[in-house]
Amino acid sequence: MDAIEVVVAHSERATLRVGDVFLKVDADQARVGIEVEAMALTPVPTPEVLWHKPPVLALAALPGTAIGRLGEPSTASPAAWAAAGAAIRTLHDAPLPSRSGRAGRSVDELTAELDAECGWLVANDVLPADLVTRSRRIAEAALRPWTPAFTHGDLQVAHVFVDGDEVTGVLDWSEAGRGDALYDLATVTLGHREHLGDVIAGYGTDVDLDVIRAWWALRSLLGVRWLIEHGFDPSTPGCEVDVLKSLM
Q1: Would you give the DSSP letter of residue 174?
Q2: b/e for 79-104, b at 16 or more Cβ within 10 A?
Q3: Of 36, 35, 14, nearest to 26 (Cα)?
Q4: What's the pLDDT at 238?
Q5: 40: number of CA atoms within 13 Å, CB side?
Q6: Can you tell me the distance from the alpha carbon of 80 to that of 84, in angstroms, rounded to the nearest whole number?
Q7: Domain boundaries, the chain
Q8: Are 60 and 171 in contact (CB under 8 A)?
Q9: Does the domain formed by 62-246 have CATH 3.90.1200.10?
Q10: Above pLDDT 90, what percent of the chain?
Q11: Signal peptide location in the record (predicted)?
Q12: 3-state SS of the chain: helix, strand, coil percent to 5?
């Protein structure tokens, strides 16, 4: 071990890498508990829990590399993306957990949150009003009833690890619970729409593409303020603002 690497750090949580061990420090101890519980329930491979002493969770490093990064082209093969889709289907077919996760917010809750965030984006001149209005209209397709599934809830491409064409594990289960399956599919392909067909092929069932597109818009609209307030730039090429522009 030559150094401690800060993987991510903001006011809510930080993740450090020490050799082959990742240390997650979370201000919300309940969120860490949710992550440990979800990893114990899911049929999808996850990092080994080495120990858990609130507020710290120690995880073993996964083999392989992330299937992609938001804002960067993915070098993973179409077969690897299809394998990710198959792993997601395995998760969604698993018995439901007891709690609702991030992807399980009610339509009324999502609508209220979306209205508030769109108002903030326009009032603070963060995004052009016409972009917000058109994106909000696209997002409405996600605001419909769905059949609950076991969802990851924050299935960013950086959380899916592959080695060659095989999925070696999925990280960061703190938002897991009952939710909309299409939210996971939209999240893993956010900013990587060129791989949506591969993911769906691996998923193995018909998917409403309008709802996927709606979740891209909705997740991006809801994420901009949080990213800004936590020191990230949503206007980085390929990230949330570019996603919204690409939907027009």
Answers
A1: T
A2: ebbbbbbbbbbbbbeeeebeebbbbb
A3: 14
A4: 92
A5: 8
A6: 6
A7: 62-246
A8: no
A9: yes
A10: 88
A11: none
A12: 45, 20, 35
